[in-house]
Amino acid sequence: MKGSVIWNLQRYSSLIVLSYVVYVMIFILSFEGEIGFFDWTKFFLSFQMRFLTSIVCVFILIHAFIGLWTVGTDYLTKRTLGFLSNPLSAMADLLRKAYLFLFVVLGLMYLTVILYIIWT
Amino acid sequence: MEGRPVYLDLTKIRLPMSAFSSITHRLSGMYTFFITLPVILYLIYFSTSSKTNFDNLVSSISSISFFSFFIYVSLLVFWYHLLTGLRHLIMDFLHIGESLNTANNSAIFVIVFWIISSLSILFYIYS
After folding, report:
1. Which residues of B touch A (CB under 8 A)?
2. ipTM, interface predicted TM-score of the complex
3. Where residue B80 sits, what CATH number does that domain have?
4. Domain membership flag for residue B2
5. What does the pLDDT look like over B19-62, one tens digit per residue?
6. Which range marks the domain in which residue A49 is found?
7. Residue B99 sits in which domain range?
8. CATH of the domain at A54
9. What is the pTM of this model?
C-alpha cells in the first residue's frame, strides 16, 4: 500500500473516531438528570448506535493497526534494539512479527467481543 | 576532545517539548489499545447487560477506590491521546503551528490543558 494512503487512513480514521467520541460525550453530558439503565440502553443499543459503533470499531482497529505497526517498525528493529543488547538485536525481526501477531489477534478479539455485546 | 560524546547517550539529549508530545502520543496510544480499550469493553458490557449490573457499575465507579481510579486514569490517558492527536491533526491538515517555536508552545499548552482538565474531572467525579 502507498505510504500516502496509509498516512491519510491514519488521520481520517482518527477524525471518524473523534466524531463518535464527541457524539457519545454530548449525549452523556447534555442528559437532563441522572442517566439510568433504560436511558443508556435506549440510546446505546438503538439500531443506529449499534450500526455506528460497529463501523467506528472497524476504524478504531485500522487506526490502531497503523499506529502500532509504525511503532513496531520504528523501535523493534535490529538498529534500535542494538542500543539495548546484541542478542536482542539479532531477534528483532522475530520480535516484530510476534508483536504484530499479538496486536492483530487482540484487535480481532476486541472486535468480536464488542459485536457480540451490542448485537446479542 | 575531552567530554566529547562518542556514542548516542539519550540522557544527554534535551528533548524538545514537541518531541515529548509526539513520543507520549505514541505511548498513550499503546496504553489506549492494550488497556483502555478492554476497560471500555468492560464498561459497555456491564452498563448494557442488565439494570443490576448497570447500578452496581455506577456505584462502584462513583466511590473512591483503586478500581474506579484505574478506570478514570485509563480514560484520561485516552483523553491525552485525543488532545495530542488533535494537535497533530491541526499541524498536518491546517498547517498551523508547524514552526519549532509554536510547536513547542502548543505542546506545552496541550500538556498543561490535559493536567488541569484531568484534575478538574477527577475532582468533579470524586467530590
Report:
1. 8, 26, 29-30, 32-34, 37-38, 41, 44-45, 47-51, 54-55, 82, 85-86, 89, 92-93
2. 0.92
3. 1.20.1300.10
4. no
5. 999 999 999 999 999 999 999 999 999 999 999 999 999 999 99
6. 3-119
7. 17-126
8. 1.20.1300.10
9. 0.90
C-alpha cell at B98: 508547524
B1 is a domain residue? no
Within 8 A of B51 by CB-CB distance, chain A residues are 37-38
**Domain annotation covers residue B6:** no
**Domain-located, residue B9:** no
The Cα–Cα gap between B69 and B45 comes to 19
pLDDT in tens, A8-53: 999 999 999 999 999 999 999 999 888 999 999 999 999 999 999 9
